Amino acid sequence: MSDKHDDKRKVQVLVKEKTDFLPFIKFKEAELTVAGQSLNRTDDPLKVTGKLRFGADYSQEGFLHGKILRSPHPHALIKAIDTTKAEALEGVAAVLTAKDVRGRNGFGAIIPDQPVICSDKVRFIGDGVALVAAETEKIAHEALALIEVDYEPLPAVFDPRDAMKEDAPKIHEGGNLLSYDKLRKGDVDKGFERADVILERTYEVPFLEHAYMEPDVAMAIPQRDGTMLVEGPMQAPFTVRRNVAPVVGLPINKVRCRQIHMGGGFGGKEDSPIDLGCRAAVLAQHTGMPVRMALEREEVTIQTAKRHPMIMEVRIGAMKDGTLVAFQGVIYDEQGAYASLGPKIPPAGGSHVHSMVMMAGPYVIPNVKVDAYLCYTNHPYGGAMRGFGAPQVHIAHEQIMDELAAELGISPVEIRRKNAFQLGSETATGQVLDQSVGLRETLEACAKAFEWDRRFSETGYIDKERSKRRGVGVGMGWYRTSIGTGGDACGANVYVHEDGSVLLYTGITEMGQGAFTVLPQICAEELGVRLEDVRLVQPDTDLVPESGPTVGSRSTTLMGNAIIQAARQVKQSLTEAAAEILGVAPEQVEFRDRKVFDRDNPFSSVEFSKVAGRCMATGRRLVGQGWWTPPAASLDPETGQGNPYFVYTYSTHMAQVAVDVETGEVEVEYYVAAFDVGKAINPRALEGQIEGGVAMGLGYALMEEVVIREGVIQNTNLQNYLIPTTLDVPDINPIILEMPNQFGPYGAKGIGEMPNIPATPAILNAICNACGGRVRSLPADPEKVFWAIREAGGAPNK
Amino acid sequence: MPQAFEELHWRRDISLKDYLLPETLSQALQMLREYKGRARIIAGGTDVIVALRRCDYTVDALVDIGRVPGLGLIEQQGDNIVLGALVTHAQTEASALVREKAGLLATACGAVGSPQIRTIATVAGNLVSGQPAADASIPLLALDARVAVVSTDGERTVPLSDFFLDVGKTVVDPTREILTRIEFKALGSNQGGCSLRLSKRKALSLPMLVCSVVVTVDDAKNAITEAAIALGPVAPTPFRSRLVEDVVKGKPATLETLHEAAERAYAYCSPRDSLLRGSCDYRQEMVKVLVKRGLRRALEDAGCVL
Amino acid sequence: MSLNISFKLNGEAVEVAVEASTLLIDLVREKLGLTGTKAGCREGECGACTVLVDGKAYSSCLMPAIKVQGREVTTIEGLRKPDGSLHPLQEAFMDAGAAQCGFCTPGMIMNAAALLSNNPNPDEHEIRKALSGVLCRCTGYRKIVEAVKAAAAANQS
User: CB–CB of B200 and A781 under 8 A?
Assistant: First the structure.
């Protein structure tokens, strides 16, 4: 091609050797025309006009309404249930108890330990003891009130450390310690012996609510052929199917899960749709009628998963110059009543193991020891929430890094510069980071844009009454792409039609992150067509290949690769046909902008649609299937050593806050966040992920907490579960760096979860910098900041 | 402790048999009477609808006074500013009259909920709901407001300081009576006011603490002749901190006086621990801070130089 | 009790029977089939249910339907230019990437529409204040604020 072509911004050569073996995919070196562009989202026209239908917007005509009777006790035996009065109520179609579940009476994303309907005992307030289906929601609600349950309350346990005690009430048969994992690298005792300074701190974080704006809804619709159709907003249709099938006693091929556009998920809609889907399906199976089950906001809060609370004990040792030599961590990770996504899926899946792997931070530390305990309690259960165990441990390591820097008298940026991962670094699990490591670059880019040196030197009082102090803080982070399990894979189908239009089938769901734009962009790029030529099929387990869940910041990378493979399979036919038409060798053919060119003669081209038509007419294959799985994950169960995840995204955040030192109120005034994302497939959508993630991390830092006393949630609606408003979030400045990932489509790696992770500690560190108070138990609401200032002996004078 | 059924099993709709639309005040009162305690007044509805949804109380009918003429005025009558029962928080916040002559009320009304709530929620409704955190009640207490309450038995005027009885309970029986008017003296040239609010986020939040102050100073702007300090929610009802007012009365307008007032305010209040609003200890500390700041800004508003 | 009310909905006269307990959100969503108005909390906190009544933004989940008798209601479905094309706010939301999951988008746009009709050239703080009653969990609000600015600018030119 022309020189002009080559001079434009090139995607780096990402592969050392050309190979046909997975997972290496050779990407084109030419300029990208669709991928890499900030194109408008494909679903925007429906969203801005109110035409996009969410789960609750589908017609309820012909549906029964399902409701769940929840336990009023955090821990109790069920002695008897009397449903006769409820059954007698006019308009009630079914009142079901545990005996009515025909298949397996249990569901769960990893272990099916949560009863569809509890039979002998309840383990948290929110546990379902009976299901009702009725003609209207109102009747269903009235029926719930008529069900009589005789409970025998049991002693309950609400702290993971208490749960591990020998005499603790046993929540599940197998005991309360659901998982104990350990990481051993080097010799931590010797490391601490070498250290000039050793610090020990404990950090605590509460349960967090996802607070996706759309409350959950599921519909189960029995089909005439005996299959069960389950529809609803769901991040993981295949996981829902995997659970519904045994619960209703059907093989997997007789359960069909169809995803409806989600009004936010953030990990929460990974397992709440399993809960609602199974329960609606049981009611539908029993009544033979379509059943709709919708939760009100309060019910979402009471019943569904949360972010795990943790108590984290950290000990860190460093030399005088700031070089880290040892890190020891203990994690008391509270699972709550059911396993959800907490426990390990070998080798490195599950949120608990992820917390352990990430705990020492993105720093080179030769000696690391982490012990991580995951315990059942009688609280709501912890599930996946944007960062999957990583946000919690970042709050620990990023704060202790600042505390250590203060102890050593060096700047928070300097200590990170000294220890941050770079190409070739070895992580706490002994993984050598041999590619795509842009952490230090994010630190420098962020510091430059934020003007760290200036702002860091200008902290202090900002008003004449001397009540407000300004401060700055930094937070660094890393986050995996993929989920670290053996079965992490994505499949995609690409169908090209005779007019050149394309259908793309993937099981990756849209929840606002932009997958329905980014994935077709990759498909269009590879086929040399435009974004509007590719129609993405709404995920439906009857139609799309298994793709795993839409979690783990894996979609763009894993599915992107699968799409490229699928497209290339079709391109073989297209290439042959085009070569025939153009009268050149197949290697000479190039796809771009709805045309197929002779590489050496840009004036010789044929319309993509004509090429597709010729394939059709000549019986060539126009269906491609891609399947991509990342390099195998490994993690030794005894030492926690191995390569748990194949690539990481890196980030540095800097925040400026003003703290009212008399009241403890905090205002975040200015914010810069830099990311190494490998490659931005849609930079504007990626910025949206960053800005939204920072806001979520800000909420975690300053205001969010599911307040629970004796198992009872005190803030079930959004009036008291506080998430940031327009007035709480500053103007956020995102910076995108691209250090290509050799295993990613055009170099991409994951971004979905990373942005909220360093935001929380960056703000906490800024608060401490401003007022001297260190809040080690979140959230840093005005009261906590106030007492932290008191504890520090008052705000600094000057 | 088992949790209540209503708190565990939500249904989306409210339960109501009738919705009545009187054209006059006497019609409205008559309707209430006919329902014998099973009907309640609705104006903006932001509190009533939420309460019905949460089953805080149940009624058979709502009597919507939205069409009753004459209840929507904000005007000065002599020395007084009068707000009708239908005046919303947004109207109060935006009113040039209120901003100029009772700025603390405009400030407080502007901090309630969100723009959509302020557009419809009435100040009178905020009072009748009787919540200890009711934003508008605190500045109105500091302004020595009075309210007119009518029933089929006639009209009575109640000083706001006698109005609040307990959490959610006021002298107005909402199944029988209507609060028609709020009245208070416009601030004079020797007066200043201020309303401060502490909350966990910057919009859409219930306050942890509201403190409203009105001061009267001598002509030379050197001494405090009168002070009104209202606080909430630190007790079951919004209240006037008379003991602190007495402390500052007659004192010079100086920082020392502010500090003394703040220390006294701290000593004289004992809020309860709240899981969502903060501990007693913290809010007691905050009373100190907000009283000091409130007095300072009110004095500055009155023209004092501190 | 069932009562007939008549009002203007998105420019067209509507007469419909409602119950005493019917809230405006359920009237528009269920009875009238306009599901663009969303229910996120039903307590006036999330703002996703915002509609315009006589040009002002209201939380439809807190409003008895009977209250709109004789008034003019606009939902997201009725927001458009007189010629039927997209409202500048809708265009701006797409171009700025202001919608992510899209659940709050109708509430955001309706509040922004109420703002721009009163204040055609708002500054950033005015925009943030006007939108402070709509919660968004996806965007961090930056692109939403940008979109409102862009729409205001488009209106001016």
Answer: yes
Q: What angle do CA A38, A40, A42 make, to 5 degrees?
A: 130
Burial of A690 (0-12, 13-18, 19+ CB in 10 A): buried
Residue A336, classified by CB atoms within 10 Å of its CB into exposed (0-12), middle (13-18) or buried (19+), is buried
Distance, in Å, from the CA atom of A9 to the CA atom of A628, rounded to the nearest integer, reads: 27
What single DSSP character describes residue A467? -
Predicted confidence at residue A552, as pLDDT, reads 95
pLDDT band at A433 (very low <50, low <70, confident <90, very high): very high
Backbone torsions φ then ψ of A580, nearest 5 degrees: -60, -45
Q: Per DSSP, which regions of chain B are E strands?
A: 18-20, 39-42, 61-64, 74-77, 80-84, 146-151, 154-159, 164-166, 169-170, 178-185, 191-198, 209-217, 224-232, 239-240
Strand, helix or coil for residue B129: helix
All residues at 6 or more sequence positions from A209 whose CB lies less than 8 Å from its CB, including other chains:
A301, A306, A307, A704, A706, A721
The amino acid occupying position B198 is L
Mutation pick from B6, B11, B280, B286 vs chain A, by most beta carbons of A within 10 Å, is B11
Q: Does any CB of chain C come closer than 8 Å to the CB of residue A727?
A: yes
Q: How high is the ipTM of this complex?
A: 0.98
Q: Which of C76, C138, C144 to mutate to test the interface with A (most CBs of A within 10 A)?
A: C138
Is residue C69 a contact partner of residue C5, using CB atoms and an 8 Å limit?
yes
For chain C positions 65-124, those within 8 Å of chain B (CB to CB) are: 66-67, 69, 111, 114
Strand partners, A152: A77
pLDDT in the model for residue A388: 97
| C-alpha distances in Å from residue B109, one per residue of B76, B98, B126 | 18, 11, 10
Instruction: Give me the torsion for CA of C114, C115, C116, C117, rounded to 10°.
Output: 50
Alpha carbon of A293: minimum distance to chain B alpha carbons (Å): 12
CA-CA-CA-CA dihedral for A485, A490, A491, A493, to nearest 10: 170
With contact defined as 3+ CB pairs under 8 Å, the chains touching C are A, B
Separation CA A551–CA A383 (nearest Å): 12
Gyration radius of chain B's alpha carbons: 20
- What amino acid is encoded at A2 in this protein? S
Q: Is B58 on the interface with C (CB under 8 A)?
A: no
Most C CBs within 10 Å, among B10, B93, B116, B201, to test the C interface: B116
Counting every residue written for chain B, the total comes to: 306
The Cα–Cα gap between A509 and A297 comes to 22
Helix axes A560-582, A515-527, angle to 10 degrees: 30
Query: Omega before A23 cis (within 30°)?
Result: yes
Please state, in angstroms and as integers, the Cα–Cα distance from residue A456 to each residue in A459, A471, A474, C87, following that order: 6, 7, 10, 44
Neighbour tally for A189: CB within 10 Å: 11
**Any B CB within 8 A of C47 CB:** yes
Cα separation, B49 vs B51, whole angstroms = 5
Name the strands in the sheet holding B18-20, side by side, starting at the edge strand that comes first in the sequence: B18-20, B61-64, B39-42
* C40/B117 Cα distance (integer angstroms): 16
> Across the interface, do A727 and B9 touch by the CB < 8 Å criterion?
no
- Per-residue confidence of chain B (306 residues) as pLDDT tens digits? 789 998 999 988 899 999 999 999 999 999 999 999 999 999 999 999 999 999 999 999 999 999 999 999 999 999 999 999 999 999 999 999 999 999 999 999 999 999 999 999 999 999 999 998 899 999 999 999 999 999 999 999 999 999 999 999 999 999 999 999 999 999 999 999 999 999 999 999 999 999 999 999 999 999 999 999 999 998 889 989 999 999 999 999 999 999 999 999 998 888 889 988 899 999 999 999 999 999 999 999 999 998
For residues A744 and A119, what is the distance between their CA atoms, to the nearest angstrom? 47
